[in-house]
Write a structure and sequence with these properties.
Strand content: 5-15%
Number of helices: 12
Shape: globular
Strand order of the largest sheet: 1-2-7-4
Distance between the termini: 65 Å
Mean pLDDT: 92
Helix content: 25-40%
Order of helices and strands: HEHHEEHEHEEEHEEHEHHHHH
Length: about 300
């Protein structure tokens, strides 16, 4: 049985690599004891702002066995999205993760393929695929699975590749060999804390989500408060500042996923072009993009806020 675990683990990791995932780590499914009090306190301090969905399914968020019946393993996967080219200097900025096709679609397809492969090679294995659309603490599982450590900006960091990647999971009812966490390599560095335009990193390893530029430009549906005017550093959708200044991201390499390549206009547009964007152009440039979450009206609101 132990031999099978090793064999199945090797099979799964090899297939994950073939599918284009950057890394694959595996943890035993169970209650996240360390995360429970942290999440409870974070919610109690209202650091999720108006993201009410963060309050839902508290027990499932902390225990995958409540999410997938009979689950035994959490397979965590990283997919690189670091682009080879970025926007012009004279442009309103979009977070790099939203340059190409919405990652939910791209990763979900790869995860389904991985699950089908597991079922074809190993037999009757039950499980579900997750891409941050269900109550799963992605970052906690990635850390537990040894894919990196939690950085002071609360993103998962790897010595080899930094932090510009998506995290996804397959939760399955199969015993596998489990990985162990890696050590923290942030040291005395405070680059991300010092650079955050809205001081959203309230202390090392703790981000007040309701102060983050990503929250204001994506999650917040009403008017952006005037108290943060002038501190957005030209970000109109999301923000990469804490990742851009992180010394570990000097090791980031360009992704090889054609679906993550941006529409040419996204790289060419200047501030003036964005200010004049029409619904038609928005639909063309962001046809399958995560930017659609904020809708045309939301993007216009953000641009107007930066312009004033």
């Amino acid at each position: 049985m132990i031999e099978n675990r090793a064999k199945y683990t090797a099979l799964i990791k090899a297939e994950a690599k073939r599918l284009g995932f950057m890394s694959c780590g595996i943890s035993k499914a169970g209650f996240l004891e360390e995360e429970a009090p942290r999440l409870e306190q974070w919610l109690a301090n209202n650091m999720h702002g108006e993201m009410q969905y963060m309050e839902n399914h508290f027990d499932k968020r902390l225990d995958p066995t409540k999410l997938v019946e009979g689950s035994k393993s959490v397979i965590s996967l990283l997919l690189n999205y670091y682009p080879s080219e970025i926007q012009k200097a004279d442009s309103y900025k979009i977070s790099k993760y939203a340059y190409g096709t919405d990652y939910h679609f791209v990763i979900k397809d790869k995860l389904k393929e991985l699950l089908h492969y597991i079922q074809a090679e190993i037999g009757e294995v039950g499980g579900r695929a997750f891409v941050d659309s269900a109550p799963v603490l992605d970052k906690a599982w990635a850390v537990k699975s040894g894919l990196g450590w939690m950085g002071k900006h609360s993103n998962v960091l790897s010595k080899k590749t930094g932090s510009f990647y998506f995290i996804a999971e397959l939760i399955i009812d199969l015993d596998l060999e489990y990985d162990t966490p890696v050590t923290d390599h942030c040291g005395n560095c405070t680059a991300c804390i010092d650079a955050c335009p809205t001081q959203a990193i309230v202390e090392p390893y703790k981000v007040d989500g309701s102060k983050c530029i990503s929250y204001f430009t994506i999650e917040l549906k009403e008017a952006i408060p005037t108290s943060v005017k002038g501190s957005f550093d030209d970000w109109m959708f999301g923000c990469d500042v804490c990742q851009d200044v992180c010394p570990w991201n000097r090791f980031s390499t360009s992704h090889k996923e054609p679906l993550f390549n941006p529409h040419p206009k996204l790289l060419e547009y200047t501030k003036k072009d964005w200010e004049e964007i029409t619904q038609e152009v928005f639909s063309e440039v962001f046809k399958k993009s995560a930017v659609k979450r904020t809708k045309y009206t939301g993007l216009l609101r953000n641009i107007q806020f930066l312009k004033e």
